[in-house]
Amino acid sequence: MKKILFLFILQGAFQLVAQKNYLIEYDKLNDKLTYYSCNWVKGTQKKQQLDEIKLTQNDVVTFKVLNVNNFIYDVAILNHEVKLETKESPFKAILGTFSGLGGPAFSLLTSLGSNPPNPLAPSRGVDKQKAETQKRCSDILSEMHQTMTQMMKTYTSFENTIKVKYAKNLSKEEILAKLKMNSIQTFDLDMEESNAHLKELYDELNSMTESDLLDIDDPIWEEIDKVDGNYQKFSSICLTEEGELKPYDLSEVISDVENASFSIEHRFLAKAYSEYGDKFSSNDFLIVFKEKQLSEDEVDSQNSKIDFSKFVSLAIKQEYFPSWSLGVDYVLPLGGINEYIVQEIPGDSWADIPDSILVTNGTSKAMQLAIGTKLLFDLPTKNRFISPNAVIGMAISGLNSSDNADWKLNFMLGGGMSFKSFPFVSLNAGFVFSQQKVLKEDYALNRAFVRPNEFSGFNPDPSVLFKNKFKPGLFFGLNFKL
Q1: In this structure, how many other beta carbons lie within 10 angstroms of the beta carbon of residue 476?
Q2: Of 143, 150, 353, 430, which residue is the least packed, with the fewest Cβ within 10 Å?
Q3: CA 439, CA 449: separation in Å to the nearest integer?
Q4: Taking the model in full, what pTM does it have?
Q5: Please, how many CA atoms are within 13 Å of residue 30, restricted to the half-sphere of its CB?
Q6: Half-sphere exposure of 57 (CA within 13 A, CB side)
Q7: Which of 299, 273, 328 is nearest to 83 (CA)?
């Protein structure tokens, strides 16, 4: 039986110090932190939401960042342990800006729209074959410009639409909804057929310019150079090195977004103390959102901009011990503090009248100064300025009396507060059981009675007539932590 009891006690002690698992979810879009305690029940992890977390050594802390766009951000979580005596955090908020997304297709489309080829004016005195060559060149230039313009509209629409993929303020579901809505709005244009036709026109134009049918000073050369330059820009933007069209529909983009998690997860082991014995007051974390490189021309990621950061501080659960304090208080017993006047009345032996005593009420005080010691228990609070506490202890009142027999014992129970900027002094108040002098039940107040034989001599003992009795009351005063 003793062995079984020992095993139960051992198991309970182990559970008290067992490693705990915590999950911290940070919703970037809503800037919201949520804390969970995670426990395994029959092979399934159960989450229980918490208001706050206090860590112990080797607790597992999992950070999960939600609603973070994986196409924009690289997320890093930095951690640091703060020594117990340290109040300042080593981290500062880091702010940055995220550069805008440019659109080369939109730039070329603007150029095509503002610089169409000029229509050819027939030259006089030119033979029929040259005139036909000029006419065909002009038609090719106009047709190439028109085809490139139509194709660039498709690419511009694609370029503008995929910007939503890099939205910082939209969730995954919102991005997908916008992409799918725009994928329905397609142009009635066969891009492969248009590209093949454009290539044929360009080849035909090259054949005609290599012939001798166009004069060197023919004004059409200026238009040929302009369209040729636009075609080279078009090829660099829209064609691969093999001459194939680059992606121009949204299906691949939608698939990329659907397969993206839009979340980041990191795990840490909590540290309550170092290997050298230094105790920590908190484990601090900084979640840093860095801008990703969106083009090959950008520098390495170490120089990328920081768009946003979030600071999280998790307190370490400290061993708690109450503090001894010196209390200076005023005690207010219910009914006040009574003083008594004792008068001795001589008797007459001839008339057989004994000596008598008359006890009457003297001056009464509402309160009395008391000095003593208390145990002070600081109570946890989220208030940044005030720290509440509870106190229990005892004090001696009546110390200003020269008669030690008049010193009274007081038992105190109450609460108070101190300021966190100076926690060594606290204001306290509460209930007290104060020891007070009262007349014994054997004797009457304000009425003479026979003097007891024990109450005699030059300095009679007042305990013959009076006794100490505890009365409830209130107290208030100051406590000084020792």
Answers
A1: 16
A2: 353
A3: 13
A4: 0.53
A5: 9
A6: 10
A7: 273
